[in-house]
Amino acid sequence: MSRTPRLVLLSMLVLAIAGSMAVSPAATAVRAQQPTGVIPTVTGTPEGPYIVVTYPEQINVRAGPNQAFYEKIGVLQTGETAPAIGRSPGGEWIQITYLGAPGGVGWVYAYYLELYQGSILPIVEPPPTATPLTTPTINPTYAAAFGSQLTPTRLPTFTAPPPLQYPTFEPVAGTNSRIPAGFIILGFLVVGVLGALISFVRGR
Questions:
Q1: 127-143: pLDDT as tens digits
Q2: pLDDT (mean) for 16-31
């Protein structure tokens, strides 16, 4: 084989390798190109009446319109929205669509949120309250130990105290004279004054 065909084959091989290297990045760039069209976004605002949580903390979603008789089935954060279905007879609770709960509904306290696009909601009767699966019973042993009946004792009757004895002072015998004691004292005082005057005059 002559030298010229070898050079031609070698040149063609080099050109083929160079061509494949030049084409591969372009193909890769085409595969990685992102679409330039506008992708529609889904907004979270529901259609029809809906509520927005305005309470500064999360609120509870319950199975019925009462926090004492119905269990908590979830929570809503501040600013969250949910479709409004109805309200309780008193208007203090609002029934909302709450996915994942039994029946897909829940109840929230009306004073923790704002209602939009539905100033008048239909009244929804509360669901029945949950009944316990078992009835609690008292152990007879504990009932006998701690449930004994106490025998009532009669309080003592009130007895009135004896009447108070006030002391009385009897007059002393022999002191009942006709001349009052004041006059006697006054007489001694006059005699003393006269004696002092006489002593003073004689001294001069």
A1: 888 665 455 677 767 76
A2: 55
Let me know if residue 8 belongs to a domain. Answer: no
Antiparallel, parallel or unpaired: β 113-116 and 50-53 = antiparallel
Q: Looking at the 3D structure of the chain, how many domains does it have? A: 1
**Is this prediction's pTM over 0.85?**
no
Amino acid at 167: P
Q: Which residue has the higher pLDDT, 54 or 12?
A: 54
25 inside domain: no
The reply to whether 70 falls in a domain is yes
* Token code pair at residue 192: 């003393």
Note the pLDDT of residue 162: 85
What CATH number is attached to the domain comprising 99?
2.30.30.40
Q: CA of 193: how far to CAs of 22, 33, 150, 182, in Å? A: 157, 144, 89, 17
| Percent of the chain residues past pLDDT 90, beyond the cut | 28
Give 128-178 as a DSSP string: PPPPPSS-----HHHHHHH-PPPPP-PPPPP-PPPPP-----PPPTT---S
Looking up tokens 């029809």 gives 48
Burial (CB < 10 A; 0-12, 13-18, 19+), residue 24, is exposed
Range of the domain at 85: 54-116
Is residue 7 left, alpha or beta, with left meaning phi > 0 and alpha meaning psi from -120 to 50?
A: alpha
Specify if 77 maps to a domain: yes
